[in-house]
Amino acid sequence: FPDCVILQLPHISGILLLWSFFFCKWRQRCIPTNSNPGCGCAWQFQQKYGDVFTVYLGPRPVVIICGTEAIREALVDQAEVFSGRAKIAVVDPVVQGHGVVFANGERWKALRRFSLATMRDFGMGKRSVEERIQEEAQCLVEELRKSQGALQDPVFYFHSITANIICSIVFGKRFDYRDPQFLRLLELLFQSFVLITPSLLQLFELYSSFLKHFPGSHRQIYKNLQEVNVFIDRSVEKHRETLDPSAPRDFIDCYLLRMEKDKSDPRSQFDHRNLIMSALSLFFAGTETTSTTLRYGFLLMLKYPHIAERVLKEIDRVIGSDRPPALDDRAQMPYTDAVIHEIQRFADLLPIGVPHMVTKDTHFRGYILPKGTEVYPILSSALHDSRYFEKPDDFNPAHFLDANGAVKKNDAFMPFSIGKRICLGEGITRTELFLFFTTILQNFSVASPVAPEDIDLTPQESGVGNVPPKYQIRFLPRQRG
């Protein structure tokens, strides 16, 4: 990086900046006043340096982009230029630039086109993704009935249902909730997400070339993800043995057929390594994000029972009790839809986003960013942008409702990111959240041993992701007249 170019941007120590994003207590902006000097958090850095500035992650300069307008200007208005994916040091030894999430250039474009088309047309005329989610939701209802209203930690249930949807898409089948292989897969995914999240692990991002030689959680993450890859690899081999080209069953079958079609093309990106890493990416992203959002969602329903009650009334009015919820119901349920949007906004699952990289020298807001510059779009700064959300630090479904009670679009709502690197599974996740959320509340009321005013929403961990605090919940079968 030529100092005369990149360092024209305001710059500060990256370790101070990124840690301040994590350690400043959740959504407390700590704006300095006469009586409060502030804590030196990232929100203050944004005020001082503006929406675009440079930080150093160890020896590497990276560009931080804050605020709705700046993020949209980069990821949408200059989408192609900002479409590169920077490395994440803790997972790079496993993925090494392979798979749909971490690839770049033609490899990424080919894998993304294929993945989007395969998931859109998934099933080849058989059960749709919506039907699979509905089926899984009913399996969950039966499982929750067995609890007979006992206190439960919801982690297991929400991980199971979201992982089973990915299993259905990738492997063509769901697993019983007590299947030993399935339980091991859940354990590996959950443990890896929790290990990646803590702020202290960000030290590894700063000095990975040095710290990789020492013991630490990065080694356990590597071991876990490699074990998941072995699980996927075995399934791929079984698919090879039973593949029927006239009737592809799932993502793996479709990929194997594409590999066969392209086998004589030396430029093809459809090889075994990219298959394994794409499946891993779908598992890791599709399981943890949706599961964690559901955990936050039901914690918020316990915290705000009056909001849960309004959702229940809307479910009873639109859906009733004689049929399962369907995706078409969402258009007639604006309040429930707004609540789910607000859960995603408030949970702020990936506050610093996933790092991007510019693909060529570019001008951005008066600065020159050389090709290869790493860029962090701080999604949290949009999701809590006071110019777009009246009370950004409060849980308030009205943020997504207009004066007539209809759902309104908000440009600052970007929990899946935006632009060319928007989350591959956005559509599936939105469907899962609506159908799982409404199916559970159609069949159960929820209760907590803790009074609503005493429920603490502060994350258990904040780092790459926000992990909700542990809590206990009762799923009480609804009594209907």
Q: Care to describe what's here?
A:
The protein is an alpha+beta fold and 481 residues long. It has one domain (13-477): Orthogonal Bundle (Cytochrome p450), CATH 1.10.630. 49% of the residues lie in helices and 9% in strands. The chain contains 19 helices and twelve strands. The strands form four sheets. It has a six-stranded mixed beta sheet. A two-stranded antiparallel sheet has the order 6-7. The chain has a two-stranded antiparallel ribbon with strand order 9-12. α10 (180-196) packs antiparallel against α13 and α15 (272-303) crosses α16. It starts with a helix and ends with a strand. Residues 1-7 and 25-40 have low confidence and may be disordered.
